[in-house]
Structure formats: C-alpha cells, structure tokens
Design goal:
alpha+beta, 2 domains, 5-stranded antiparallel sheet, 24% helix
Length: 146
C-alpha cells in the first residue's frame, strides 16, 4: 500500500521511537558534540580559586588545536623558540617516532610511542628547531610555552 506524503506517519514510528527527543544526544555523544564543556562545568564548581584556574588551564590545553597534525611522515619547517616549551604529542597508530632536530638538522631527542597514546617532552633551551615525524597513522603535536 502506497502512502501519500504525511499520511500514516504515526503508524510508521510507533513504539520504535527513541526514549529521548529527536536531535538530542546522550552519553558519549555529548562529549563528541560539546568538546570540553563537561570538564569546564567541573572546573566551575571548584571553590578554591587557584585550583579552579589550574583546572581551566588544563581544559584549555587539552582542547587547544594542535600546532601540527597529519598522517604518516612529515618534517616541519624550522621554528624558533624564545623560551622553554612543552612538546606534547599524540599518535593513533602502532608506530610513531618523533625527532626533535636542532638548527643544523642534528637529532636533539628521539621520542616514540608504540601502540598509540600521548606523551610529552620539555624543550628546555631557546633556539631554532624542526620536527621529523614518522608514523603509521594520524598524529597531533602541540608546542606550549612553559
């Protein structure tokens, strides 16, 4: 039986309606659509102003866009740091090797993650650096002054 537009809609939906409103999100979907908002709400409830500020700073750092992001291999253009920076790196692949290179292309530090994950390294001396990334999947890198 063919239905005209709009006729019989109540019968088609019946008991198959979700238990929440159309367009609403629940559980893990909230995290995907709101980013750090739940974490911000937790910070907001902290009564101690120093801990509240530290909480906000942590949420901002975790949700900041990466300085570099890509897939597989890449070498950055040289960049200059005027003070120490925390290099935070995340990989989604089984292989991730990151070389911190000095202005002459010499390896300052060899960093790696096996099996995916996140780690940090402190570049404690001002100078000109570049990064050589060799990965098997997607990766992100942040450079944050300390």
């Amino acid at each position: 039986m063919a239905l005209a537009s709009g006729v019989g809609c109540g019968v088609l939906f019946g008991a198959d309606l979700p238990r929440y409103a159309w367009g609403a999100v629940q559980g893990a979907e909230i995290q995907k659509t709101t980013g750090g908002l739940p974490a911000l709400q937790q910070c907001r409830q902290e009564p101690n102003s120093e801990r509240r500020l530290r909480c906000y700073d942590e949420v901002a750092a975790k949700n900041a866009p990466p300085t570099y992001a890509g897939k597989l291999g890449y070498t950055t253009e040289p960049f200059t740091l005027d003070r120490p920076h925390l290099l935070r790196f995340r990989s989604q692949g089984v292989v991730f090797v990151l070389y911190v290179l000095d202005q002459h292309g010499q390896v300052v530090q060899n960093l790696h993650i096996g099996g995916g994950g996140e780690d940090t390294y402190l570049i404690d001396k001002p100078g000109t650096y570049s990064l050589q990334i060799d990965g098997s999947s997607r990766w992100q890198i942040w450079l944050d002054p300390v």
